[in-house]
């Protein structure tokens, strides 16, 4: 979904400088935030208050898998995708067959936090550079007339590959969630899952974004990640450090998402929005750093092709042809 804000925006990726690293580790609040980080919030949408009673829908994997509860939980999943494009999924269980393995997740959280604690020069050994700005370590640099030239208050590692066990667990979860989405949409499971997974069960493409949002004493001045929609199909977000900060746009407001212990945040990306003829929302979201604590997340997205994070805009061929014909792609999947 091209939104007004994201359409006018160009994003590239930069190395983290010593000066930025010093700012990110500052413990006092006396320092000025450099202009390069100060965002124009003139057209700021309203941010919903902490006291407002709203919560993202929570979908429970155990209920989806329970024959007696599956239909109602599938309907809940469907309405979350239509109304929000975002939901929590309770899927972390210890060593049972259907959830995401707790031990694997714990390991991923630990190693992620450990990476960001490394000295800058060590992290910069894999810095963005050369031709490949979709794989590596650094941060987003937002260009374009509507944004100015502004850096995100964050550091991240972006990878187009599958880095290990944890992402396989997430991939498995993605395949199962897509299966229930197909049931909700009344389309063939094979076709919807098959848009992202090969017959042998491997995901066709995957992007991983590992994000560290250092605390910022003046959080209202900066952004950890600029408003955007996710390009790929489905993104699963794991909190390695569960400091809040993610905000989802609904209408003219930003709604803060509170991390839910033991749950993952899932959101619909642009490709799934298109594949469902716009039935499922690809919602705009952003991150505002916390004043006191850092936030660390791992975002794993399934794509329909190989390629980098935010990479080539090539739909799978069938869908592209359907779009070019003005056909409703979803109709071709209907049972
Ligand atoms: O870190 C977060 O909460 C959001 C990350 C995100 O939006 C992304 O990787 O696309
Ligand atoms: Fe995102």
Automatic annotation (TrEMBL):
This protein's name: Fe2OG dioxygenase domain-containing protein
Record-annotated Fe2OG dioxygenase domain positions: 204-306
Record-linked PANTHER family: OXOGLUTARATE/IRON-DEPENDENT DIOXYGENASE
Single GO MF annotation: metal ion binding
Family to which the UniProt record says this protein belongs: Belongs to the iron/ascorbate-dependent oxidoreductase family.
Entries under Gene3D superfamilies matching the protein: B-lactam Antibiotic, Isopenicillin N Synthase, Chain
Originating species: Digitaria exilis
Keywords noted in UniProt: Iron, Metal-binding, Oxidoreductase
Coiled-coil stretches: none
Matching InterPro entries: DIOX_N, IPNS-like_FE2OG_OXY, IPNS-like_sf, Oxoglu/Fe-dep_dioxygenase_dom, Plant_2OG-oxidoreductases
SUPFAM superfamilies: Clavaminate synthase-like (SSF51197)
